[in-house]
Specification:
single chain, 208 residues, alpha/beta, Nucleotidyltransferase, domain 5, 7 helices, 50% helix, elongated, transposition, transmembrane helix, DNA recombination
Amino acid sequence: MAISFKGAHFPKDVILFAVFFYVRYSVSYRDLEEIMRERGVFVDHTTLNRWVTRYSGAIAEAARRRKGPCDRSWRMGETYVKVKGTWVYLYRAVDKHGRTPDFMLSKRRNKAAATKFFARALEVNGLPRKIVIDKSGANTAGIKTINKMLRNFGCPIPTEMVRRKYLNNIIEQDHRFIKRRIRPMLGFTSFASAASALAGIELINIIR
């Protein structure tokens, strides 16, 4: 997946540095504007916002398809993120070693969203042997839907579903780094900007 910088008024390296700095460290756009100015780059915080929205998600998507394999035992859950005063849902999964199979921001927390997330995760990671979830009915229905689809395609062994909240502590703990990172960002103004910034944050976590 090629990322085009056509039409950008700053060098690619400057844009990538700014995007990386924003998703890696706990800064606001105004903080980043000041950091860039100290390095001799005069760029408005609204332009920085556009860079993150345009490039962060694209970079994360390209990297997502090239990341290394994960263990076949997953822990899955979702956490809340506020966008323009409304709560949306960040679906996330980690394997038993803490590596991230996938993530997805959704406006809804229901069977359709859970099914979409599982299908997306399977696309780049293959079939997990086991998924541990809490007692969410939507996630239960999502896994059952995926298993039914797999049976229809001739897959004889379904993914085992384990519904034990205490076994899912690893994903609950992993949510915390998202909360720490987005707190200084002072909220998201659109779903697109939230999805792009969160994708960049997740990518940095995967790289780490």
